[in-house]
Amino acid sequence: MDDKDALSGLAMRRLGSLPSFQRWAAQTTERIRREVTEEAERVRREVEERVRRESEQRAEAKGVIRSLLEYFTAKGDVPTLHALETMNACTDLTIAQFWLKRAYAGEASARIFPDDPGGLTK
To answer: How far apart are CA 118 and CA 11, in angstroms?
Structure first.
């Protein structure tokens, strides 16, 4: 430790012993703690809201998928295992609605959910 470090240590000890510095340090510590707590609470609320919205959308997507399956069943269109797996894996409301619109427009499940979507086995 050189003289500069020793002086800084001594100066910090003396500064720390002053009541006005102790008050300032306590107030600053409390302000920082309050700001961090407020920010953490804001982030927690934001995350909870996002999780709630995503959960609602997944539930809505599953409802649309049920409607799609009921529609195919009513028309006598039996989806393939691949189609059923694809539908059951869907959690995106927009995609589920798109499939339902295609079915309502008259497309068969085999066309909406081809077993070889990229034509790789031709």
So the answer is: 74
